[in-house]
Write a structure and sequence with these properties.
Low-confidence stretches of chain B: none
CATH architecture of the largest domain in chain B: Alpha-Beta Barrel
Number of strands of chain A: 4
Radius of gyration of chain A: 13 Å
Distance between the termini of chain B: 51 Å
Oligomer: heterodimer
Helix content of chain A: 25-40%
Radius of gyration of chain B: 21 Å
CATH topology of the largest domain in chain B: Anaerobic Ribonucleotide-triphosphate Reductase Large Chain
CATH architecture of chain A: 2-Layer Sandwich
Order of helices and strands of chain B: HEHHEHHEHEEHEEHHEEHHEHHEHEEEHE
Strand order of the largest sheet of chain A: 2-3-1-4
Low-confidence stretches of chain A: none
CATH superfamily of chain A: ACT domain
CATH topology of chain A: Alpha-Beta Plaits
Order of helices and strands of chain A: EHEEHEH
Shape of chain A: globular
């Protein structure tokens, strides 16, 4: 298990989740949890995913997701969960 | 499980508040390169650095991608060169060949600075130390990435006033050698008291003789994050203020710890320390002076500045210490003038003088840093400023440093542009009264009474 946090922030539009999920499925990334809110009209989604079986390194996934984000006008980040665990848990 | 608000908080720090890991610095011992033949020594130094550090920059980038946190600089520190070159160098020019080798090695592995063109002379200078010191102006003029530091005093040994006098001359000469570029050589030259062996920050980084063969030291930053956190507690009392700084420093440092451990694992090099510093950059919102203003000062330099900086420095340490298994280096708040927009504004508004900066160095983590002074400042005056700063370090058992830039051809009221992380600075007035007779006495200032603790 290699838990990765994927966040999507931007203007709400049709098909954001579909695009991201299709990409993840094609790259053998398993989605464990999704939470989503709309903050001040902005779409705000967080996914917890397992990238252990993906043939791609997290850096590559991160770059490609960022590109997909650019295409649909949202910011997509893909980060190893440790940065959040370290910062928010003792 | 981590929730969406925590994730958003972290990412907001990175995206909007300039949270970053300021530097991964790889310390490399060059002790095993020592040779009495200059050419062989140069080759050994180049080979060792380019072998040990060959994956440093790539590893830094991989870690950036994995965690989504910028790692701004990848750097190298080496054993003080005066210890390495002693057997081979007979003239200052011999040392300059070593500086060029360091510069080439830095360029080959892709790091932006290499520190350790240094000598430790707090009690006395060996011939080798003096040759290195005399080679500094030329060495810094003919290289781009080499940084030099000289330790001229310590609480245990006192202050080597002969070295202080010499460094006044060397700072001035370095300015002359690089006068075509606004005397930028001086931005790469620091004079220290109580220099730490494991400092990852430039220009003062070197790999101390007490260190292992190679070590990873990481410097964290994030003045912008502290400032934004303090915006939410405006008007609250000092207890709330201090708690907020402490918690924020903890979070920032944890990221540094994560990056340091990951870098150590990937490179197969032991983790040394985290340097818990608030290091500003000229970017808007990345300013230590901005924090002081948020604490309640109209400008950095206003009455209350020293107290505000003292509490900031202390709370950063208290929060950071628990977040990392080893802390070291300089650890605290940096107050460079040219690298901090808020400090530049304070100088231009007339709120901040050299004398107030000196008072601030009693409680900050380092010293008089990146301060541009008139190019016609006397060498003895520079030595006098260095001596004052070294005395503060010696008596208070803390690291102090001086990085002054006498800008040749420019005077008070003019401005100097260094570019990039080094920023720009207004030229500050210096006290015009003479200290010639004091500086010219020669010899050493003895160690203070409280150094005798045995």
């Amino acid at each position: 298990m290699q838990k990765t946090i994927i966040t999507v922030v931007g203007q709400d539009t049709v098909g954001i989740i579909a695009k991201v999920c299709t990409y993840l499925a094609n790259n053998k990334v398993n989605i464990l949890d999704i939470s989503q809110t709309i903050v001040q009209g902005y779409f705000n989604m967080m996914m917890v995913a397992d990238t252990a079986d993906s043939p791609k390194e997290i850096g590559e996934l991160s770059n490609e997701l960022a590109q997909i984000g650019d295409e649909i006008g949202v910011a997509i980040r893909c980060q190893h969960e440790d940065i959040f665990n370290k910062m928010h848990r003792i | 499980m981590i929730n969406i608000f925590e994730v958003n908080e972290t990412n907001k720090m990175i995206e909007q508040e300039n949270l970053d890991v300021r530097t991964i610095t790889l310390g490399i011992s060059l002790m095993d390169c020592i040779d009495s033949d200059l050419e062989t020594l140069n080759k050994k130094v180049y080979d060792k650095i380019t072998t040990v550090a060959k994956d440093l920059v790539k590893t830094g980038k991989d870690i950036e991608n994995k965690y989504g946190i910028p790692i701004v600089n990848k750097r190298i520190s080496i054993t003080p060169m005066a210890l390495i070159g002693g057997a081979a160098c007979r003239t200052p020019e011999d040392y300059v060949t070593l500086a060029k080798t360091l510069d080439n090695a830095a360029k080959t592995v892709g790091v932006n600075f290499i520190g350790g063109y240094s000598a430790l002379v707090s009690k006395g200078m060996t011939t080798s130390d003096e040759l290195l010191i005399r080679s500094i102006p030329q060495a810094l003029a003919c290289t781009d990435r080499v940084c030099s530091s000289i330790n001229v005093g310590s609480t245990k040994c006192g202050i080597n006033m002969d070295a202080v006098k010499l460094m006044g001359e060397i700072v001035h000469e370095t300015a002359e050698y690089t006068k075509e570029n606004d005397s930028i050589g001086c931005a790469k030259l620091v004079v220290f008291c109580n220099a730490p062996d494991d400092n990852p920050f430039m220009a003062g980084a070197f790999h101390g003789v007490t260190e292992a063969d190679a070590i990873i030291n990481v410097g964290v930053s994030g003045p912008g994050v502290v400032k934004v956190a303090l915006e939410k507690v405006r008007g609250e009392n000092f207890e709330v203020l201090c708690e907020t700084i402490k918690k924020t420093a903890f979070k920032i440092t944890r990221v540094g710890q994560l990056v340091a451990q990951e870098a150590s694992k990937r490179l197969g090099i032991p983790f040394g320390i985290i340097d818990l510093s608030l290091a500003p950059t000229p970017a808007i919102g990345d300013s230590v002076a901005g924090i002081l203003e948020e604490i309640g000062l109209e400008y950095a330099g206003a009455p209350g500045t020293t107290a505000a900086l003292a509490l900031l420095n202390d709370q950063v340490k208290k929060g950071g210490v628990m977040a990392s298994s080893y802390v070291g280096g300089l650890s605290g708040a940096f107050i460079p003038v040219s690298e901090d927009q808020g400090m530049i504004d304070a100088v231009e508004a007339g709120a901040l003088s050299l004398e107030k900066l000196e008072a601030m160095t009693c409680v900050c983590s380092v010293g008089l840093d990146m301060i541009a002074i008139p190019g016609d400042t006397k060498e003895t005056t520079i030595s006098g400023i260095i001596a004052d700063e070294m005395a503060i370090g010696m008596i208070n058992q803390k690291t102090t440093a001086v990085r002054l830039i006498p800008v040749i051809g420019k005077g008070v009221g003019e401005r100097v542009e260094f570019g990039g992380l080094l920023g720009y600075a207004p030229i500050m007035p210096v006290n015009q009264y003479s200290c010639d007779a004091f500086v010219n006495r020669g010899g050493r200032i003895p160690a203070p009474i409280h150094s005798f603790k045995n």
